[in-house]
Amino acid sequence: RCAAMARNAAPTGRLPGWALVAAKDMAVGEQVYICTGLANGRLLAMYGVAYPGNPNGAVLSQGRLDDSALDTLLHEAQGADCDRIMVRSLFLRKDADAVISIHNIKCSSLAWMGRVEIATQAIQAGYFD
């Protein structure tokens, strides 16, 4: 049910505006959702649009971590059930019980605690349960 947005979608590239790119053939009158996966702040900066009901909150990402550092963190923390994006970023949630999920705090602690072994010990001790 999601559609992507494409800027200047005409073959000539001369028409201004946006077009919806559907993932499937859609029936007349079928409701279309624009599922960007982006927070309103980023949508405003990139496309000049924002949506009041946007479920995507802000994402704070650690720019100083390169791929090899992330690989090391994830290897050291095997069993923590964390993926790269959860280690690297904090996802601020709108209309949720907590602004940041406990799982996200646990995973990102691998990076922000400074030493992976301390974060791993805290996870194993149940500090994030």
The radius of gyration computed from the alpha-carbon positions, rounded to a whole number of angstroms, is 19 Å
Main sheet, how many strands, which sense, barrel? 3 strands, mixed
Low-confidence stretches: none
Number of DSSP strands?
5
- Provide the helix percentage: 25-40%
Secondary structure category: alpha+beta
Strand content: 5-15%
Helix and strand element order: EEEHEHHEHH
Number of helices: 5
Mean pLDDT: 75
Shape: elongated
Strand order of the largest sheet: 2-1-3
Distance between the termini: 35 Å
Provide a descriptive summary of the structure in words:
- Helix content is 33%, strand content 15%.
- It has 5 helices and 5 strands, in the order E-E-E-H-E-H-H-E-H-H.
- It has 129 residues and is an alpha+beta fold.
Please give a handful of descriptors for the protein shown:
single chain; 129 residues; alpha+beta; 3-stranded mixed sheet; 5 helices; elongated
Summarize the structure.
The chain is α+β, with helices and mostly antiparallel strands. The protein has five helices and five strands; from the N terminus they run βββαβααβαα.
